[in-house]
Amino acid sequence: MKILMQTPFSALNAFVIVLGLLTILQACADTREDPDSKSHDRWAPFRPPMGHWKGVGHGPTGESVQETEWNLVLNGTFLQCKSSSKARGDHHQDIGLISYDQSRKKYVYRAFHSEGFVNRYLVELSSDRRKIVFTSEAIENGPQGLKAMEVIEFKNGKLETTLKLASGVGPYEVCASRKLARVESERRD
User: Fold this and answer.
1) Is residue 139 predicted with pLDDT exceeding 90?
2) What is the pLDDT of residue 39?
3) DSSP character for 87?
4) Is 132 exposed, middle or buried (0-12, 13-18, 19+ CB in 10 A)?
5) How confident is the model at residue 15 (pLDDT cuts 50, 70, 90)?
6) Residue 180 — φ and ψ, nearest 5°?
């Protein structure tokens, strides 16, 4: 230990310097990579849908009662999305997490469905932040070539969603839609 302290530049000093530089570079990268770095609010584009929503949906099983909740979890690191749909003898549930992938500079949404599907979506945001588009990047436990797209829009204080599916190279076709109203007067941020 005395030898390391007596030498002007040791391996330990080099390690400490490199570790410090990596920490500084990561902090700078985190700030630049965040999509809303001006406000330092990574979740700014998703603030409008945060909270508890209820409404009616239409899909393959007919009309359904819908419920959705969007909340920040794990110290604000992820946005959790939970949904429930009840229709004639059918009860669908899903839960998912939205994260920000700094290396790709994209939001990624991973949704786990009660039917066993796991979808990984890339997220696109409209410039006015009134529309969010989730386009599947991968689907586990689904038919070969299945693609999914969910479009969420804010219209007149309502949350409207449309689920579209496509197989192979075919075009997307509407599978289900829903219209939801906020249950609470305040969002849970």
Assistant:
1) yes
2) 56
3) E
4) buried
5) very low
6) -125, 150
Q: What would the pLDDT profile of 106-138 be if each residue is shown by its tens digit? A: 999 999 999 999 999 999 998 887 899 999 999
pLDDT of residue 10 exceeding 70, the answer is no
pLDDT interval class at 26 (50, 70, 90): very low
Three-state DSSP state, 32: helix
3-state per-residue secondary structure call for 125-165: ECCCCCEEEEEEEEEECCCCCEEEEEEEEEECCEEEEEEEE
Which one, of 118, 114, 49, lies nearest residue 86 by Cα?
A: 114
35, two tokens: 């999509």
Contacts of 129 by beta carbon, 8 Å cutoff, 6+ apart = 44, 45, 48
Distance of CA 50 to the CA centre of its chain: 12
Residue type, 77: T
Q: What is the DSSP letter of 44?
A: G
Distance between CA 138 and CA 129 in Å, rounded?
A: 25
Locate 95 and state its tokens: 């839960």
Q: Show the tokens assigned to 98.
A: 């939205």
Instruction: Write the CA distances from 177 to 65, 90, 172, integer angstroms.
Output: 12, 16, 14
Quote the DSSP letter at residue 188: -
